[in-house]
Every structure is written in structure tokens, then in C-alpha cells.
Fold these 2 entries.
Entry 1:
Amino acid sequence: MGKAHSQSVTDGKVPGMELAAIADLLPEKAELFPQAKFFNSGAELIASGEVDAVIIATPHYDHTTLGIAALEAGLHLIVEKPISVHKADCEKLIAAHTNKDQVFAAMFNQRTDPRYIKLKKMIDSGEFGKINRVQWTITDWFRSEQYYSSGGWRATWKGEGGGVLLNQCPHQLDLWQWLFGVPSSVRAHIEIGRFHDIEVEDDVTAYLRYDDGMSGVFITTTGEAPGTNRLEIAAEKGRIIVEGTNISWTRNEVETSEHSSTTDQGFARPETWDIEIPFQDKGEQHLGIMKNFANTILKGEKLIAPAEEGIHSVELANAMIYSGTNDCTVTMPLDAAAYETMLMDKIKNSTHVKKVKNTGASTDDFSNSF
């Protein structure tokens, strides 16, 4: 992603940004962008005084240490998802953002998708009425064995800090909390290496409960093909489905609870009509976040994805892993210290050895700066 972000800037796709420097542990990466200064580590780049802003696109644990260094150096900052591996590290990173004149963003690119923007507006306006149940089946994150063997840090507790919940699903977990808020409790079943030779979770089913009675089910895996991406919302004013390029709303003429309490028919459902809201594209995604980042710095535009909000998706992922590991219901907010202790124990007791295939790609530190 560091290479992709740098290419977007050098191609002139982000007005107001210029690529000033890149950093990587592999010296040959300097050849990718010869016009930019090259540093052997993100820490050296951050301390160089050569840049105004940084994008951190490294393995997950470095998001915290490099992020804190960038903020303490007075730089504007975008952190790739997840902003940190676990909640305690998120809190440390967020606490370092003491100068609110520094723009601090997270790469939650799916917040630029018109479907989810429209959905959030309709939820926030109360157009659907009270939401009773949500189910998101997101199983089109298929990954092969080759993917996991392409880097020694992938799919390990020490290198990545988790599996599908920490790598692929931060996007959906961020959208979940953005749309529906943080639940009061989480109960999850996770399977470790069900489909792959890995030591972290690649199959998850979670049940989420809210104080207002709303319930949710979140299902994900990297081992299912072709997979699906279907978000279903059961609300008082009908059923909403987000799938493919449409939002489909089967709208009740009368709210469900009102119909139930007033009808004299035992089996009669509310009358409905169908509403289709089509969308032709998925927004600007990563490019949209970068443009917004630049415009926030230069023009005072409102951030699409403030990094402080990134703690919520990490907390949800952590809660699911903690629940599945310990076969328990997690009451939110998650005990950050308890999760960190569990994670450190997993790292300490890891016996998993991966065969890493050399694909020519960097698997270590790549942070690019502007």
C-alpha cells in the first residue's frame, strides 16, 4: 500500500501533495521513486525534518511506534488500518495526538463509498425507525496459502496480531461502529487456521448485543470462495439489504411494532413497497481519503476518518478474539490490559513456523511521506 499511495501522489492524483521521501528496510525500494529522498527506516524519515506529513503503511505493530514518533515530531499523519493491533496500543497512539492542529487520519477508505454514506444518513435521520437486528456476512475476503506465505509477519500473533479481523475486516468493523455504534457485549466463535496453515483466526462468527435491545451477527472468513458481502438490517420500517451495487429497502407502511399491537389479524404483516437505491461506483476509496487529508490540512475540510475513531474497530476485533479464545461473553468496553496480557501470552507460546515464499515484495517497514 505504501507503493500504491506514493504512486497516486507522483501521478498528481492528490492536489496539494508532493512525494518528498520514502522509507523502507530494503534499499532497493529507493529505485521505485528516485525523485524522493530515501531513508532506511521510518524513524529516520520522521526525524529528518524533510517532510510535513507521513503515511504509515507498515506491518501493524509499527503503526503505534511510528505513529507516536510522527505525532511527537509535529507531523500530520495518516495511519493505515488498523491504527494499532490492540486497544491499549490504540490508547497510547491517540494520547500522543496532543496538538489538535495536526491532522491525524486513518485509512478507512470504505467511508468514501456512496452506499455507506447514504446508509449512514438514513440511519442517523431515523428514516428506518428503530433498528432491531443487523447481520453482516462478509466472506469475500478470500486469501490463498500463497498470500499467507508471502511474508513472515503475515497471520502470526507476533507479526500481525491476528488474522481476518485485524487484516481484512477492519474496514467492515469500522463501518459497523460508524453506522450502528459500539455494542454492550460481544460473544464470538473463532477458528484458528481452519482453512490455512496459520496460527490466527481465519473464520469468525460473532453475536453483538446493544443496550437498546438491538442485536447483531457478524460473519467473516478468508477461506470461502466466491464468498459474499451482504449487510441486512431489520428495522421498524422494514428490511434493508446492502449487497452488490444496490441498497434495497422493503418498506413497511406501518412500523412493525405498531402493526403488531393494532392489527386484528393473527398472521397479517404490514403492507410494503420496494425501494431500490442504485449506485454505480464505490467512491474514491484510498484516493478519497488522501484527498480529504490534504484538504483538511490546506483548507480546513472536515476529516472523513479521524484516527481517534479507529480504536473502535480494533476494540471490536479484540473483543471477538478474546471471547473466542476464552469461550466467554465480553462486556464492553473491553479490558485493554487483559487483552494485551492474552496477546503477549499467545506471542510467547507461539510454536507456528511458516514457510515464507520470496515474491520480491517487501514484508517489513515501508512508510511514505510527503
Note: The chain has twelve helices and 15 strands.
Entry 2:
Amino acid sequence: MAFDIRWRREAGRNLPVLVWQWPEPMRTIASGPHNGGIGLRRWVVNAQVPPAYARRDPDHHLGKLGVSLGLPGRGVGMMTAADVQHYRSTVDDGVEVVATVGLSRPISAAAPDEPRAPSLAGTINVVAVVPQRLSDAALVNAVVTMTEAKVQALRDAGVPGTGTATDAVCVVCPNDGPIVDYAGPRSRWGARLARAMHGAVLTGAAP
């Protein structure tokens, strides 16, 4: 998938941003703070922020970042304190997954509540592009499949957790062509997503 690294000046630092952009709107499901949910999107950004990031308006912040980068229309915005230049990319038969893996504070999803707020320092952000149009149900299924593969990768890497408190995922596919209704781990596209996700997170989690 075509993406590039751009730079911006913020809080006295030069910070990188991973940017994906498409000429036509793409079907997207995302859990990021800016334009998450299911819909048509023209771009995705994964922006590195300072470890002490304390803004309470990440949606607005990422929207302004998209404007400053000259990105047209609606897009998805994610952020992490991990160095996005250290992204990991895996391709499996037409499916590509790009992951930035920050594991300074892994958690187990069903762990008891903690008294202090989670830190942005440990975040796994993932962008996946599938060349096949997926239904809404298949997009949701894809997120579940990718999450299972992420946990498998962390287990294989010996990480004591299922992820971090601020992980985000984005799946992008075309808005035209024959539609597929399933993306479970044994379906054609779900299996490819799972393998690509596992490979990207596993290499990103390596010491």
C-alpha cells in the first residue's frame, strides 16, 4: 500500500506522521479518535506525539493535522508516542498490514481496573488494506480476526499482556466491486489479514 512519512513541528520537536491517501473514498472501519467507526474515508494518519501528551481534544487535534498536511475530505486519525518511523509492514497475498508497536505498558484486557489513567507511551496502531470490498459485517469480523492475531503475536513474543490500553486499528478496502460478507480467520481474506497482522506485530514486538 502506498504511504509516506511526513514531518511536522509540535511542542518544540520535529515529529513524524505516517500518511495514507487515496484518490477515491475507501470503505473503512477504524477505532482511532478522529473519524472512527464505519464509513468512506480518503486518508489515514498515524501521528507520533510526545510521551507526555496531555491534550484532551485528540479528535480536533488530528483534524487540524489533516488540514495542515493538505489532506482532502474525511480521513481517519490515530496517534502514538511510539516512533512511527519504526513501523513494521507485512504482506500476505494482496493484504498489507502496517503496525507501529509500542509496548512500554502492556496490559491484559480483563485485568482489574487501575487507579491511574493509561499512558499513550505504549500503543499498538495498525492500518490494514484489503483489495476486496468487504461488507459492514465483514469489516467488523476483520477487526476481531486481527485482534486475535495480535494477541497471538504478543504471546509468541513473550509479552505479558493482550495489548495496551490505547491500541487502535483501521481496515481499508475498496468501495466498489463484488462484496464479501465474511472475514473470519479461516475465510480467504480473514486468513490473510490474520497472517499479515501476526507478522507485523511479532516483528514489531521483537527486542
Note: The first strand starts at residue 3 and ends at 10.
